[in-house]
Amino acid sequence: MTEARIHDAGYRRYTGVRLGPSQAIRSLTRHTAQRVMGLRRPARYKALPFLVVLIAYLPAAVFVGLAAFLPHQLRGQLPKVSDYYGFVTAAIVLFVAFVAPESMCPDRKYRTLSLYLAAPLDRLSYLRAKAQAVVAILALVTVGPPVLMLIGLSLQNAGPKHPSDLAIVVVRILASGTMLAVFYTSISMAVASLTDRRAFAAAFTLILVAGSVTVAGTLVYALGATHSLVVLNLSRVPFEMSQRIFGTYDNDLRGVPTVVIVLGTVGWFALGCAVTWWRYRRLQVTR
Amino acid sequence: MTDAVVRADGVTKRWGATVALDEATFEIGSGITGLLGANGAGKTTMLGLVLGLYRPEGGAITVLDRDPWTAGPEVRARIGWAPEHDALPPDVPAFDAVRHLAEVHGLPNTEASGRASDALWVVGLGEERFRAVGTMSTGQRQRVKLAQAIAHDPALVLLDEPTNGLDPVQREEMLGLIRHVGHDLGLDVVLSSHLLEEVERTCDSVVILDEGRAVAQGGIAELRAIGGTRAELIVEVDGGDDAVSAVVARLDGVAVDVDGSRLVVELSGDDVYDLVRDAVADTGVALRLLQRRTRSLEDVYLDARG
Hints:
Chain A has about 290 residues and is mainly alpha-helical.
């Protein structure tokens, strides 16, 4: 017969280690990423993020499958890794419009921000944690699929032939994918900082991207302005930047110097950061 | 070093043209301290300064012997804060929210999980801890806020109007929990409230703010003693001035003030009750009121506000 015991599971004083702001940032980053992907939430919150991620990976799976089943017929005809984003631009932009609003708006709507700023986080470290989470999630669709495609093609002997070439492509995928994630994180966080409503923020993000396409297209193609104004196009300038990282370019933008593309990308990024910081610096959280 | 958990010395804070705090000077020690004042008195602004969210325009404030503005993260790691308003997403289980906020306050993940459970049991939500916050009643949501404020074992707990929106039963339970946190668990608590009676019943000491100034501070008993510690017995009888005079005539050796049909008798000892009873009985008048009165926090508050 075993001896029965009742253990006191009551509140105890804590004398262990306290990990400070770094733990706060890690926890907020992880919590935000889980929340955006619908983890530890009802199934309906998982549907959209997982569907978009699936769409982003679908072309990579198809290309690898074609390379596997039709290796001779399609040799040299499959798209290059650098062209991959052309197949999933819409999915990436849709995901961008979803992720930042989902990660930022509820904290202000439900005033959880006041609890975070009453912890070892300050406004800057809070935004850093949020940005890390958004970048990591966007990287699922900007880094993951090209990597999958590269791995698949390499296994089918349809990828780079030499290890050095393979390493260069990997570095370029990581650089361009991270650049895209960081760029769109900045833009979408700026929009999400302007409203507490997720749906409005998502709509505004899509409207902003569509508006920039219209404005740049009108200026360049209807009014005959310099092609350098393509930097106003939020769905084109980062992807052109990605092409330049791979050492290629869009034929339409052949005459636009890389420095202009870099300045355009950095300019939008800086503007996004500035708007986000301007909004959060002014927020009153306890009143 | 000082015993004061919070020390404000001439603290001034403005919001535009509005002076929220006007050279407020006070100390908050251990135990449960009420931060009392009408709406707009500067209580919430003061809590924001304690958290290091704002920089005072004048004066100095120290919290746990640190300047919260320059040492914000270190100070806030040791503070638990429950705001007046709802602050937790409705679709998150209470346990997840409390655990996450314990981690955000610097606790390792495994410790945060255990302490989140403990804190939710303390506030009486042990069985309900996996329910989404949005499905809980107002009283339960206030308890979750209290749980997240104590889960990381803070040195100081700041509660802003914690009984807001609660019915009388829930309010009573919440005040009991606050007393438990302050007296049994040994956490220093600042209870910001505009409700005088709940501060009087819950707190060991009080700081009274009025239009941004700290107009009174100290232990509840000490403040009551200012202006006299004398206890009084209020006696009302039927029968008009003649009856009052007859009763007074029979109260030999007792200090009595007459206020209309009301007698204010100095309660110098328990035998005064017997004297009053006998005087009324001997006079043959009807006794309408016999009530002990001491100086209340309301008297202190009204005096302090001038």
